[in-house]
Amino acid sequence: MLSEKALAERFGEVVLPHLGDALALARWLTGNATDAEDVVQEACVKAHAGISGYAGGNARAWLLTIVRNTAYTWMSRNRPRGMLAVGDLGDLDEMAAAHGTSPPDEDGPEASLIARADTAALEAAIAALPQPFRETLVLRDINGLSYREIAAMLDVPMGTVMSRLARARGLLVSELGRAP
Amino acid sequence: MTNHDDGLPNDPEGMRLMIHALIDGELDAAAALAVERRIAADPALAAEHARIIALQGALGRLPRPNVSDALRARIAALGATGTARPAQDEAEPQRDSPSAQPGLIAASVGGGRRRDARTGSSRTFGPFDWRALAASIMISAVLASGATQWVMVNYASDGLAAAVASGHRRSLLAASPIDIVSSDRHTVKPWLDARIGVSPPSPDLAQDGYALIGGRVEVISGRPVPALVYRHREHLITLVAEPQQGGGIAKPADLSSGGFSLVHWRDGAFSYWAISDMERPELDDFVARFRKAAV
After folding, report:
1. Are B201 and B181 in contact (CB under 8 A)?
2. How many C-alpha atoms does A38 have within 13 Å on its Cβ side?
3. B182 neighbors B188 (Cβ within 8 angstroms)
4. Residues 173-232, chain B, touching A (beta carbon < 8 A)
5. For a tag site, which of B69, B72, B181, B203 has the least CB within 10 Å?
6. Which chain A residues are Cβ-neighbours of B13 within 8 angstroms?
7. Where are chain A's structural domains?
């Protein structure tokens, strides 16, 4: 059993360095920065209460798992039911798989077009992604978690993480490629 | 389609996933080399590779939300101790707890854990006051408020339940979560009795793993109602006891939802609401022990 002081130190080491990541994830899950602060604060209270349960490993992944769960709890509490259009995950994954059976974007947009995409267009495209794709993309490309960590957090097989990620990126690419 | 013997998928979708995996650094050296060879040999794959790289670059340039000093200070204060205080505290008024009833703070709860009895706002708590216990109380308040809101929705037709829930939620959010901090039932009971003339059974279940840590008064439908707070490991259980007049008896009913456990029952004298972030079986265990001890 760790002393209270040791737990406080651990909180400082495990939670505080990852507030930026926590806020970024919460921002993309809730859709705005103000709600994200509420979610992160609530998540940190939970993280503090549960700090003795942190068993080593990637501290960022540990904190982000709490942030994700808190965000969904928070949204179920603070948003009208209609806004939580999570959809049928099975259908979405089938959709993701089906998408890939088409020839891999022989006529996809030029990479240089993607690279020049402006911030507002990219943010709008991310916001428009279906939620399971969006959270997978954010966890990988913004929070930098590994496939394995994402699979553990979402409790889905690695293959599902991979197909959701490919689908999310494919949607962003075609959206940004459409821009003049 | 050309067949390769490099062990990589031969279907386009599988190969596409491998390109993502290569870019994400998920492949070992041998697989990465094989994928790079395929990309070099296939312009379509190379174009896909370039698009993903470009997208990642664009994503990496997105502005990150700024962690405000205020948020950082609030969260640092959660973990702060007397030896490791966040720098922001220098600027904040030091709110030392003048604990109105220092003698009533029991040893199991004391040990330096002081709480600010009267500031009213959790955000102005100094690090001294706002430590493990207070944090876990806060989480209980947050969780319970979510749970009670859920109750409100589901009991919209039941006026009393809605009043219990809304009053409970208001009080949890607005008032101090514990008005009297004590593990001694002989302190909590008279305190509640003196304040509101009602005192529910308040057995100390410490030997069962559920320590009584305090009580508070809530106002529901214009009436003061006692609430007890128990602790089980890292979890808090809030037990609201609404006095009944000629009420019936009802067995514990599960009202849990969305990660909260909520159990409601009546024993003829009181209508109880037990709310916690514990798992249902644990809360059921608490309810069973409480009902047994309260008889």
Report:
1. no
2. 14
3. yes
4. none
5. B69
6. 97, 100-101, 104
7. 4-82, 85-178
Could you tell me which residues are beta bridge partners of residue B274?
Answer: B239, B263
CB count in 10 Å sphere of residue A90: 8
ipTM of the complex model: 0.85
- CATH superfamily name and code, B131-294: MucB/RseB, C-terminal domain (3.30.200.100)
Burial class (CB in 10 A: 0-12, 13-18, 19+), A10: middle
Task: Give pLDDT tens digits for B96-153.
Answer: 333 333 333 333 333 333 333 333 333 333 333 334 434 444 444 444 444 444 443 4
3-state SS class at A128: coil
For residue range A135-158, what is the model confidence (pLDDT) as tens digits?
999 999 999 999 999 999 999 999
| CA gap B279, B261 in Å, rounded | 6
Which chain A residues have a beta carbon less than 8 Å from that of B72? 16, 19
Task: Say which CATH architecture domain A4-82 belongs to.
Answer: Orthogonal Bundle (1.10)
Domain ranges of chain B: 12-60, 131-294
Q: What is the pTM of this model?
A: 0.53
